[in-house]
Amino acid sequence: MRVVAAMSGGVDSAVAAARMLEAGHEVVGVHLALARKAATLREGARGCCTIEDAGDARRVADRLGIPFYVWDMAADFQREVMEDFVAEYEAGRTPNPCLRCNEKIKFAALLDKALALGFDAVATGHYAQIVDGPAGRELHRALDEAKDQSYVLGVLDADQLARAFFPLGDTTKPDIRAEAAERGFYVASKPDSHDICFIADGDTRGWLTERLGEQPGDIVDAGSGAVVGQHAGAYGFTVGQRRGLGLDRSSLDGEPRYVTAVDAGTRTVTIGTADLLGVDLLEADHLRWCGPAPVGPVRVGAQLRAHGSETGALAQVDGDRLQVRLDERVRGVAPGQSVVLYEGTRVVGSATITEAGRG
């Protein structure tokens, strides 16, 4: 099988490419250039897409003896991921750019280009497993629970899964690093990237302010209805946030306050006590199924964050909408986040939360 191995320049994608080659596939390494102006230095463990990353990927490809190319997808990434990210925050929602990147770039633009060039599949260094099931290939959680990335792959459909390989899903991260060292890969001890790749310094609010400008508004206390502060942009807040509110605590009752709602239309950020954060009823759209869509109310596990725990739930599809009733209240759930549904370790599918409340 002719396979494109997506090589970020990190240890995971390096070992994934090596394993695909050893499995007997014809492998070509491809590094995705996603930044219009690639940085020349990685800032610790943050960010990616530096010139050094491309060089690291090329060195691994050379060691494996496979062809290597850099594909420029900066325009696609700018449009589908970065602009979407800004628009979602401006609308008062909290997006997950990693899911959007997997959906629109790594398993749409990349796979489409690979197929157009005569390749059969794409392999990545994601920690997840693909299992042959009765209805086709199934996406499952990785063996290494701490590194499991099935949540951010929950946007993949059956056709994309049929042409995807995740060679690391049955191995723990320490063992991957050890394998990379044994293979003589320079990247064996390279730090993992964290947070949002296109915001290298981790200052999301500052990055958004540069693009949206200051949009001042009120901070309102949910209990009293009083205006207790001002902000420079509602887009800089997300439900569940406690730090960075800039409040004069003397005007409150001493109880900690959290963001409970963001209204982009009125530029109002509402804060409240912790007891107001818990929700157990979700409405969602943008449904993506990794296999057949569930029929009728079904018992599932629901995960609401990339590194969050799973909560038992009852899910029901109604046309292009999904309703999820959680068994227990979960704090800090915001519109724009994704809910990924599981049946055991199998990923059923995902949807984007539009409303979160109490049933």
UniProtKB/TrEMBL annotation:
Residues 207-272 form the tRNA-specific 2-thiouridylase MnmA-like central domain. The active site is at C101, C197. The keyword Methyltransferase does not apply. One of its GO terms (molecular function) is oxidoreductase activity. It holds the Pfam family tRNA_Me_trans_C. The keyword tRNA processing applies. Residues 280-353 form the tRNA-specific 2-thiouridylase MnmA-like C-terminal domain. PANTHER family: MITOCHONDRIAL TRNA-SPECIFIC 2-THIOURIDYLASE 1, TRNA 5-METHYLAMINOMETHYL-2-THIOURIDYLATE -METHYLTRANSFERASE. NCBIfam families: PRK00143.1, trmU. This is tRNA-specific 2-thiouridylase MnmA. The gene is mnmA.
